[in-house]
C-alpha cells in the first residue's frame, strides 16, 4: 500500500450524475438533498470525493460540480480536523463549447489554465489529486505526459493521476513521471464493473507499482444481474449493489470504488459493502455467472493518440 492509498480509504464517491442527470438542479431542495448525501458519506468516515471540471449541466456552467463538492465540504458540520482529512480529486482534459461541442485538449497551456481554474472553484491553493481525464488524439502520448509533468512542476498539484489510459500507456507514463514513491502517478481512473472488464491488465500495472485504481461506474449493470447477485445478497442480508461492490473490491487491494452519490440511502448502502466479505465459493460463483464483457467504449477508441 502507498501513503495515498491509505489516505483515501477503501471507498470514495463521485458526483458526476448529480449534475448530468439533473438530480441536483431541479430545485434548491434537490440540491440540498445531494449535499446531505455527501454529508452522510463524510459522517460515515469516507474521505475521498471525485469530481471534474467537465461535470456540469451545460457547456456554459463548466465547473458546476466542483463548486457543489466544495460547498458540501464547506457546509459539513465535521470538525476542522475531520475536514482536513477529506481529499477531493478532480480532472481535466475534456472540453465543452457553445452548442455542446465536446472535444479533447491536452496542450500544456490548456491543462495549466484548467488546473488553476479548478483550484479556484475548490477554494484551494493546491489540488490534492488532479487526473488527466482523457487523452487527446491530436497529440502524441509522450507530449501529453510531458505536459502533465509541467503541471506538477508548476506546484499546483499535490498528487497526479491519469484516467482512461491503457496498460501500455500507463507504463510509459510511469517511465516518464515516476511511481507513487517517486512523486509520480498515484492513481488511475478507468471503467470497471460487472459488465465492463476490458482493462484488467491496467489493474495489474497498478498492483505492480502501488497505484490506486479508481473504477468509474462501478455499479453499472448490477440492476440487470439479479441472477448473479440476488441469492448471495439474501445470504448476507444486504443489497445486490453491496454484493457487487464487495466483488469489485475483492479483485485487488489497489481498488477503491467510487460509486455515484445521489441519495443518503444509496450512500449508506454502498458504505455497507465494506462489511461484506464474500467466500471463495461465492466469488467463484460470481465469476462463472458474469456475462461477457462489453466492448471498449467507442469514445476511448477515438481518443487514442496517433502514435
Describe this structure as you would to a colleague:
- This protein is of the alpha/beta class and 307 residues long.
- It has a single domain, classed as TIM Barrel.
- 46% of the residues lie in helices and 11% in strands.
- The protein is built from 14 helices and nine strands.
- It has helices at 3-8, 16-20, 28-43, 64-75, 80-84, 108-122, 141-154, 167-177, 200-209, 226-236, 240-250, 264-272, 280-289, 298-302; strands spanning 12-14, 48-50, 87-92, 94-97, 101-104, 129-132, 160-163, 185-189, 212-213.
- It has a seven-stranded parallel beta sheet. Strands 4-5 form a two-stranded antiparallel sheet.
- Helix 10 crosses helix 11 (240-250) and helix 10 (226-236) packs antiparallel against helix 13 (280-289).
- The longest helix is centred in the first third of the chain and has 16 residues, at 28-43.
- The chain starts with a helix and ends in a 5-residue tail after the last helix.
- The model has no long low-confidence stretch (mean pLDDT 94).
What is the fold's blueprint, element by element?
Blueprint: H1 3-8, E1 12-14, H2 16-20, H3 28-43, E2 48-50, H4 64-75, H5 80-84, E3 87-92, E4 94-97, E5 101-104, H6 108-122, E6 129-132, H7 141-154, E7 160-163, H8 167-177, E8 185-189, H9 200-209, E9 212-213, H10 226-236, H11 240-250, H12 264-272, H13 280-289, H14 298-302
Parallel strand pairs: 1-2, 2-3, 3-6, 6-7, 7-8, 8-9
Antiparallel strand pairs: 4-5
Helix pairs in contact: 3-4, 3-12, 6-7, 7-8, 8-9, 10-11, 10-13
Amino acid at each position: 500500500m502507498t501513503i495515498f492509498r491509505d489516505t483515501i480509504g477503501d471507498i470514495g464517491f463521485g458526483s458526476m450524475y448529480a449534475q448530468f442527470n439533473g438530480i441536483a438542479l431541479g430545485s434548491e431542495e434537490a440540491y440540498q438533498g445531494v449535499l446531505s448525501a455527501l454529508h452522510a458519506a463524510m459522517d460515515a468516515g469516507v474521505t475521498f470525493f471525485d469530481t471534474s471540471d467537465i461535470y456540469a449541466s451545460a457547456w456554459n456552467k463548466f465547473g458546476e460540480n466542483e463548486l457543489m463538492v466544495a460547498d458540501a465540504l464547506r457546509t459539513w458540520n465535521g470538525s476542522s480536523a475531520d475536514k482536513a482529512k477529506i481529499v477531493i480529486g478532480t480532472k481535466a482534459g475534456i472540453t465543452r463549447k457553445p452548442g455542446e461541442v465536446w472535444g479533447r485538449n491536452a496542450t500544456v497551456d490548456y491543462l495549466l489554465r484548467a488546473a488553476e481554474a479548478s483550484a479556484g472553484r475548490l477554494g484551494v491553493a493546491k489540488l490534492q489529486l488532479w487526473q488527466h481525464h482523457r487523452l487527446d488524439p491530436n497529440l502524441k502520448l509522450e507530449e501529453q505526459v510531458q505536459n502533465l509533468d509541467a503541471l506538477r512542476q508548476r506546484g499546483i498539484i499535490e498528487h497526479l493521476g491519469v484516467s482512461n489510459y491503457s496498460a501500455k500507456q500507463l507504463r510509459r507514463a510511469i517511465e516518464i513521471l515516476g511511481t507513487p514513491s517517486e512523486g509520480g502517478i498515484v492513481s488511475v481512473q478507468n471503467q470497471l464493473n460487472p459488465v465492463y472488464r476490458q482493462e484488467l491488465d491496467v489493474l495489474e500495472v497498478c498492483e505492480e507499482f502501488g497505484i490506486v485504481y479508481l473504477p468509474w461506474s462501478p455499479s453499472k449493470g448490477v440492476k440487470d444481474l439479479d441472477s448473479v447477485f440476488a441469492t448471495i445478497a439474501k445470504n448476507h442480508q444486504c443489497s445486490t449493489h453491496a454484493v457487487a461492490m464487495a466483488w469489485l473490491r475483492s479483485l485487488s487491494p489497489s481498488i477503491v470504488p467510487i460509486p455515484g452519490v445521489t441519495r443518503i440511502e444509496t450512500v449508506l448502502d454502498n458504505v455497507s459493502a465494506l462489511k461484506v466479505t464474500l467466500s471463495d465459493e461465492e466469488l467463484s460463483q460470481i465469476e462463472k455467472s458474469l456475462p461477457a464483457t462489453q466492448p471498449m467504449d467507442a469514445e476511448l477508441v477515438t481518443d487514442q493518440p496517433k502514435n
